[in-house]
Amino acid sequence: MPACQDEHRIVRPAVPPRAAPAQRLAPLGLLLAAFCAHAHGAELADLSLEELANIEVTSVSKRAQPLSDAPASIYVITNNDIRRSGATSLPEALRLAPNLQIAQVDARNYAITARGFNSPFENKLLVLIDGRTVYTPLFSGVFWDVQSVMLEDVERIEVVSGPGATLWGANAVNGVINIITRSAADTQGALASVGGSKFSRSGAARYGGELSNGGHYRVYGKADSNEDLRNEAGGQSLTGWHRKQAGFRADWGNPGSGYTIQGDAYDGALHQARTADIQVSGANLIGRINRILDGGSKLNLQAYWDHTERNQPLAFAERLDTFDLQAQHALQLGSAQQLVWGGGYRLARDRVDNGVAFGFLPGDLNMNWANIFAQDEIALSDKLKLTGGLKLERNNYTGVETLPTLRLAYKPNPTSLAWSALSRSVRAPSRIDRDLFSPTNPKTVNGVPQYAIAGGPNFASEVADVLEVGYRAQPLATLSYSVTAFYSQYRRLRTTEPNPVGAGLVFENRARGRNSGVEMWGNWQALPRWRLSAGLVVQRVETELDADSRDQTGTTGLATSDPSNFWQLRSSIDIAEGKELDVMMRHVGALSSPALPAYTAIDMRYGWKLRRDLELSLLGQNLFDAKHAEFGAAPGRALYERALYVKLVWRQ
Question: Are the C-beta atoms of residues 362 and 352 closer than 8 Å to each other?
């Protein structure tokens, strides 16, 4: 991970022709060689690899534990990683996770997944921001074009690749992204930033102070905009956007025992072709109580309200209100057993005004989810731990889903961990799966509704059974790495089948798939002021129709936009006091459906602390390739072009 001060809680331990790979690596090699001479001197003002390995994470067990003890494929993006990457948006910051597959679709849309099945409407990944699920029941995924946080206030992003349904519920099939912002006490004083390139502009301000009753607060506001990108046909993608957002947070007590209240509100417009802009707005409010009870057990209560509106001309207009309540209790049972149990309830009131091309029946729908869960960790010996967990979750469409997991962790010494896991997760039906309809003309024949495609009344949950084996180690003070092999079997994948009682197509579950692969990453402190980080994922995603399927698209309808491999390499050097150089190279293999050639992109950031409270940074994006596409079909797909982004940050 890159250098510089970070404020985590630490548990301190006792195809067109492209340049050949060698040509692509040459610019990076020259840069590293040029600055290697400066890499001797004072140590990086950063956490050591040993300290980074013991950052507390919560996504694996829903309780704080050192990263080195977590029996899962988890990568942590730190606040300092984000700053030194020069990321200008949340999806761009997520590119730092080597176990995530990320493609920019156009100026406002991204396709983000872990372990395959990538799409702008990806539905097998769970995303949380400070415990709030950013999920739309329309397609069981995330509208990334309205997800924004003040990146300077992010404490860490925990990225778990692999199933997490036992703790986080349905839709945590292939992974969990848990975005955690800093407490108000850690964001005191003032901060202002401005930045821009020929494609994007941003401005943000934040102020934090103390409350009279011993608490702390912060307030912020930000505005961002992106221009339309060009496409391969020579035109514009017409997907530019502008958005404003403001929010606050207040904390009392400490993270172990205290209160938190926070909220955000946003408003924006998103360009689209051949019609008026998409209007988006939303607001949320979260309350959280953490208590340490007698005997040392911990109680966590959280409630939130989330309101979103999306008016997409000629398509649909949606107003969604979500109310969520969660309770969790973590306790020690004797000297060798730790139990976490709890439950939750969510109500989503979805109101959809149907458009001409498609709609939802019923337009208005109240959806309920209720769950109880327990996960028990038992120490079989000083070095061996067994974890078993089970969640029962009920939804409107399929009733009760059973979500178990079993994990075994072996820690032969304080710096290494071998683990294995067997888990079952589901992707519950969305409104598209059950309630969608696209009418024909005429809309009825003899009083019977006619449609081109519709949700299936019997559409069931998609199911994934996953086996994982992993190893994480720090053999040297200057070297750490993680390796995970996985095999996933998917059942009841979505297909489009002929309507058995009339014309048109309906969604059913008549396909299956599998994904096998290896994901690995590591950090090397090459010199006291130079750190290298690398990551690689190799995978094979396969899908096929069941024998009784009549899906006329055949296997092409199941094709996934997933490369067989992708990798990244990052270099972070402190050139001198207050001067930083960061280089990131990322490579993504070719996609087959739709066909898209492999590409390699190199970004470089130079940061200069002009004075104690003022920092200037220059970010060169896609430096050694004038343009490339990352997703979509030719010739309309958008192009990711070379750009220079300049940013100025003032801190009081």
Answer: no
Handedness of CA 280, 102, 507, 494 (dihedral sign): negative
Query: 21-445+462-651 maps to which CATH number?
Result: 2.40.170.20
Question: Which residue do the tokens 């630490």 mark?
Answer: 10
45 vs 56: CA distance, rounded Å: 20
Q: What are the sequence ranges of the domains in the chain?
A: 21-445+462-651
How far apart CA 104 and CA 562 sit, in angstroms, is: 14
pLDDT in tens, 471-522: 999 999 999 999 999 999 999 999 999 987 777 899 999 999 999 999 999 9
For residue 632, is pLDDT > 50? yes
Dist. CA 197–CA 13, nearest whole Å: 44
**177-213 pLDDT, tens digit each:** 999 999 999 999 999 999 999 999 999 999 999 998 8
State how far Cα 518 lies from the chain centre.
Answer: 19
Q: What contacts 406, CB < 8 A, 6 or more positions away?
A: 386, 387, 388, 389, 421, 422, 423
Q: Which helix (H) or strand (E) holds 486?
A: strand 479-498
The angle formed by the CA atoms of residues 23, 25 and 31, to the nearest 5 degrees, is 115
pLDDT at 393 over 90: yes
Q: Name 306's bridge partners.
A: 284, 322
Residue 596 C-alpha from the chain's centroid:
23
Rounded Cα distance between 581 and 58, Å, is 31
Site of tokens 């930045």: 195
Check residue 65 and give its pLDDT.
93
Name the residue among 108, 124, 76, 93 with its Cα closest to residue 562: 124
